[in-house]
Amino acid sequence: MSLNRRRFLQNSALAASTAAFSRVEFVMADDSKQSKSPGEKLGYAVVGVRGQGNGHLGVLTDRDDVEILYICDVDEEVGKQRAKQVGDKQGRMPKYVQDFRQALEDPAVDCVSTATPNHWHALVTITSLQAGKDVYVEKPASHNVWEGRQMVGWTRNLGRICQCGTQSRSSPSLQEAVDFVQGGGLGKIQYAVGTCYKPRKSIGQLDQPLELPATIDYDLWCGPAEKVDLYRPRLHYDWHWDWNTGNGDMGNQGIHQMDIARWFLGADALSPQVMSIGGRLGYEDAGNTPNTQIVYHGYPDAPLIFETRGLPQKDLDWSTGMDNYRGSQIGVIVQCEQGYVVIPNYYEARVFDNDGNDVKTFKSDGNTLARHHGNFIDAVRSRNHEELNADILDGHLSSALCHTGGISHQLGASASADEIEQKVRGNDLWADSYSRLADHLQANGVSIEKSGLVVGPQLEMDTEAEEFVGSDDANRLLTRNYRKGFVVPEAKA
């Protein structure tokens, strides 16, 4: 089925599914209501508060221009606990609701801040936008390429403010470093390498389906995703390693580094070519996303390579044995004609000449998350999305680079070392990345010949349409089959 036909059928059923999903009639909020004076508080609903959402609560309750009115989480135990913590801190108890849509009925809610699992990001965002709320959505902006573009469309069509949680964009030091590089401080940019070398142990595997407590509404937790039995020991967090709900570590930790790399390159569209080599190696568990992967994004002016490694390098020491490439472990290297920049975290950029000598360092405090939420609040008051450091369009593009790399992987097949070397031959940068990957696997006792390392196809993309050229299989993976009652609506062009 073609992508356009699939979208037509999904949206033909939208009226019925929206009726099932939406319990309230959404009315556009008056922009003047949210252009409040600095002394008037913005009302917030925070959706998904176990992990990163708890970080949102910490930042927001530190501000005196915000009041958290609602805590929303499908896990009743977690939600009520967070509500009490927030009430104790801000002096007024927020209301806990299991279903975030109930909070959207309240006109006192100006903003929604959401940190749900990835598969809910688009629907929480769009539903909130339709209800007249402005939205801060965690990274990755979307679970797939198509819904990310719909998030952009709905934001623009409704005149809302929507920020993606890639908080490095609010780091003054990285802003200065980007200006330095793009201003020719080291000559022409040649390429960028993003590294996500982060220990990820096996998540285990159950013989029987996971039993969930009655305090969790699992049907609502699944939402747009396929509702299936789980054979992993934990519901929370380990959803990252299941394509049904997550996007692997490239779309978890790695989206930050992917975004920084694209930012430095100044790439304002998806890459015209993408290819993946990787697999879930070193153990067998209930996960199905790669823990070891390299992805090549063939931007014509300066390519971007992204490397994910979840295994340690030294004697399986998970605390100290992770790889480090040119000073980057969870970071980015930007190579230019006259030197290179290493961005090892969210608030620092170190500049070197081509002999490895220090040239200069850009560094600021590490309070990027609070600064990022503050930037969002400033834009909510001004009603100017161009003031956002990580507008939803940037969030969509960087997230989509993770998704297209994932698509190449999902369409790939196991290959021998000789076959892989043939695939990368002729591209020195790509071949070097693979060579270092092979050394990494050897250091971990993983045989390429026996590992089932997957080589994905090199996919060509029409970057304006954001669709692949000549691959119906790849285009089908740009979106998903949404569950009835949880269909992400298409934005009008």
What does this structure look like?
The chain contains 17 helices and 18 strands. It is globular. Strand 17 and strand 18 form a beta hairpin. The protein has 2 domains: 154 residues, NAD(P)-binding Rossmann-like Domain (Rossmann fold), CATH 3.40.50.720; 266 residues, Dihydrodipicolinate Reductase, domain 2. The N terminus is likely disordered. It is α/β, with parallel strands linked by helices. The strands form 2 sheets. Strands 7, 8, 9, 10, 11, 12, 13, 14, 15, 16, 17 and 18 form a 12-stranded mixed β-sheet that branches. A 6-stranded parallel β-sheet has the order 3-2-1-4-5-6, sandwiched between helices.
- If classified by CATH, what would the architecture of the largest domain be? 2-Layer Sandwich
What is the share of helical residues? 25-40%
Number of domains: 2
CATH topology of the largest domain: Dihydrodipicolinate Reductase, domain 2
What is the highest CATH level, the class of the largest domain? Answer: Alpha Beta
* Overall pLDDT: 93
* Largest sheet data: 12 strands, mixed
- Give the C-alpha Rg: 22 Å
Strand content: 15-25%
Global outline = globular
Ends distance: 22 Å
